[in-house]
What does this fold into?
Amino acid sequence: MDQKPTEVPAGISASAARAARDLRVVFSRLRRRIREVAQDEDLTPSQVSALTLVGKHGAATASALASAEGVRPQSMAATLAALEQHGLIRRSPDPDDGRRQLVTLTEGGRERIEGNRQVREEWLTRALEDRYTEDERHTLIEALALLERLSQA
It folds into this structure.
């Protein structure tokens, strides 16, 4: 990951700046590669993200999903309409407020999420098995503990 050095802000070590830059680059590449492995050619990245979000949160309103994704409600409405056309989500009246609709996964949506999760995990497991030694895998596990601590900061 050798790149030309960039100016480091005052009070920041060069190693912290390099680690931050390299980590961002590696995570972006790995995320892109993992997405390529999934069987989502017919969905846009925002549709995949929204589908995953519905799977994680269960029944939710479109506005709650938009807020969680950090997008405008109109954008989420268009995304949800496409997912509904694919038969991956359904909308039903909110039992607590009939003016609102709750979005949930259909059986097809659940199968899609689970299938993609399984394909990604199998690819990653196989790649770790084939490309790294046992010692290297242990090093990765130790590094992941450090990254987990970073994610809690």
